[in-house]
Amino acid sequence: xxxxxxxxxxxxxxxxxxxxxxxxxxxxxxxxxxxxxxxxxxxxxxxxxxxxxxxxxxxxxxxxxxxxxxxxxxxxxxxxxxxxxxxxxxxxxxxxxxxxxx
Amino acid sequence: xxxxxxxxxxxxxxxxxxxxxxxxxxxxxxxxxxxxxxxxxxxxxxxxxxxxxxxxxxxxxxxxxxxxxxxxxxxxxxxxxxxxxxxxxxxxxxxxxxxxxxxxxxxxxxxxxxxxxxxxxxxxxxxxxxxxxxxxxxxxxxxxxxxxxxxxxxxxxxxxxxxxxxx
Lengths: 102, 167
Known about the structure:
heterodimer, A: Helix Hairpins, 75% helix, B: mainly alpha, Four Helix Bundle (Hemerythrin (Met), subunit A), 6 helices
């Protein structure tokens, strides 16, 4: 990676994060919104690993592993909530989840 | 030179499969694209010397998390209830695109403002399990590690309590 440098890594990570934000804000299928969140977390992980390589310290790797643990927990709870919502509404469309609308 | 070519190919493939995740109509197709993204990312991690993180990526993300997603998609049996969508250029979609573009622009501008020298070579054992394990268990990150294990336990109990019909 000596010839590539840090910037392409960071731009890839920013692109992944941007794709995730786009997915969260534009899609209406709740499952794909959850997948987009995973995409955002992975973009952040790539930045952590890139900076770890740049600084020559493995602290970034430890952070990436913690992010993975949080992502796994989030996916488990999020998908349980999706199951519950589907049981109530028989739909995965975000627009139908308006129980809290005043 | 070869390294740079491989890196750019992998980066382009990662972004393209990430794009496929948010543009597919069928959630299963999205999930498969997400698996592909995870594998390309693992390859990028290997190129960056993060061997242990790459292995964890394949095991945890491409393995566990994706199995969870695919299971839930199959369990829901979405045929016929699929919300029609994508090229959803309703005001909501346009606003979402604009906000995402704004955030992305901010990221690119702030990355561009960094003035960093290029990466130098690192030691041979950089990013091995031994190094990562040492830093997690033998120093600064021991407490966060224990907190992460508590978080996983809470999430597991929470998921079971939520998804079970009657406790």
